């Protein structure tokens, strides 16, 4: 486990984010995504975890080995065959040469680069080289592996291929991954938990499912790409006044809130409110529209398999898929 208690790191020069009073625990065998805008402190947090830098205030304690992934290769590494490059990383406690070879072959088999084992490292494609570098990290037998935008230079096909092979391997090896990655959808897909940083503070740290279903505030919700926020007021207890009449919604201590409607949580219904709409764009298998409720722009999506809409449409949310956040 890695534990941070009231950790603060300040930088005097501009352009590098600090961290402010960070307290959190990183547990074994989890994939944890770090997200946040540029300058929010993601890389600073990874460097603190790796002990590349030290905190100004607070404590960081850990049990287990931590490895900060690096893509650096020496001239010797580049001129070596992949098998020779990797076998140097096998623990010296394993003296039997055949066992050392077999360990490397096992990883090559799982990550599907067996046919490249006898090529020079310098001859590999970007995707193949990434597999070899990740194998180097696994051979160090860390309890925690830290990745900072390690996949940003890969084309989508290579990246998807590596992800398909890599994340089951983390579970098999019981290694915790703490990673920064630019693609929010992929972080959500592969992470067990997510930390959202904002100006050097933790805005929210939850399981991925909880984060998506219960963002703490409008900043978190907007970062997670929710777009539809309607101001509503409580009548009493669970009863709220909405544009679609009185509705029983989740318990909420405040008397005013934003009703957050996911883009896909709309239904076309005669009991809905008529809204003008215009086609916006295609996203994956969805048509995305801009709709307008009393000049408030909202977003509505529906399957590509359905006919395209124009003019206006009567919409009502599926309230069971919506949630409330504080104003």
Write up this protein.
- This protein is globular.
- Helix 5 packs parallel to helix 6.
- The strands form four sheets. It has a six-stranded mixed β-sheet with strand order 5-6-7-3-8-9, with helices on both faces.
- It folds into three domains: 149 residues, Rossmann fold, CATH 3.40.50.300; 67 residues, no CATH class; 98 residues, no CATH class.
- It is an alpha+beta fold and 327 residues long.
- A hairpin with a 2-residue loop joins strand 11 and strand 12.
- The chain has nine helices and 18 strands.
- The two termini are 36 Å apart.
The Rg value, from CA coordinates, equals 24 Å
CATH architecture of the largest domain: 3-Layer(aba) Sandwich
What's the total count of β strands? 18
What sort of overall outline do the alpha carbons produce when their principal axes are compared?
globular
Task: Report helical residue fraction.
Answer: 25-40%
CATH class of the largest domain: Alpha Beta
Distance between the termini: 36 Å
Largest sheet: 6 strands, mixed
The computed structural class is alpha+beta
Number of helices: 9
CATH topology of the largest domain: Rossmann fold
The tally of domains stands at: 3
The CATH H-level superfamily of the largest domain is P-loop containing nucleotide triphosphate hydrolases
Task: List low-confidence stretches.
Answer: none
Name the average pLDDT.
93
Helix-strand sequence: EEEHEEHHHHEHEHEEHHEEEEEEEEE
β-strand percent reads 35-45%
Provide a quick synopsis of the model.
26% of the residues lie in helices and 36% in strands.
């Amino acid at each position: 486990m890695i534990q941070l208690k009231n950790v603060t790191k300040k930088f005097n020069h501009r352009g590098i984010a600090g961290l402010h009073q960070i307290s959190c625990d990183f547990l074994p065998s989890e994939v944890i995504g770090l997200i946040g805008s540029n300058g929010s402190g993601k890389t600073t947090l990874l460097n603190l975890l790796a002990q590349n830098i030290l905190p100004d205030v607070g404590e960081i304690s850990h049990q287990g080995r931590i490895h900060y992934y690096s893509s650096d290769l020496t001239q010797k590494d580049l001129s070596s065959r992949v098998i020779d490059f990797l076998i140097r990383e096998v623990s010296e406690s394993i003296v039997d040469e055949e066992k050392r070879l077999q360990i490397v072959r096992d990883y090559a088999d799982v990550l599907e680069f067996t046919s490249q084992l006898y090529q020079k490292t310098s001859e590999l494609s970007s995707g193949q080289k990434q597999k070899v570098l990740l194998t180097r990290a696994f051979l160090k037998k860390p309890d925690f592996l830290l990745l900072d935008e390690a996949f940003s230079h890969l084309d989508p096909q290579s990246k998807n291929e590596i992800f398909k092979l890599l994340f089951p391997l983390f579970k098999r090896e019981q290694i915790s991954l703490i990673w920064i990655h630019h693609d929010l959808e992929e972080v959500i897909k592969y992470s067990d938990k997510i930390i959202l940083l904002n100006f050097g503070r933790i805005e929210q740290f939850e399981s991925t499912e909880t984060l998506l279903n219960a963002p703490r505030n409008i900043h978190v919700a907007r970062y997670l790409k929710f777009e539809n926020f309607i101001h509503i007021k409580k009548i009493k207890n669970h009863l709220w006044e909405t544009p679609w009449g009185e509705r029983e919604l989740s318990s909420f201590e405040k008397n005013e809130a934003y009703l957050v409607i996911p883009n896909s949580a709309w239904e076309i219904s005669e009991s809905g409110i008529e809204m003008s709409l215009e086609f916006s764009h295609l996203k994956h298998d969805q048509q995305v529209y801009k709709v307008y409720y009393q000049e408030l722009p909202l977003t509505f999506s529906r399957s590509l398999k359905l006919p395209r809409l124009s003019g206006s449409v009567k919409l009502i949310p599926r309230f069971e898929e919506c949630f409330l956040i504080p104003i």
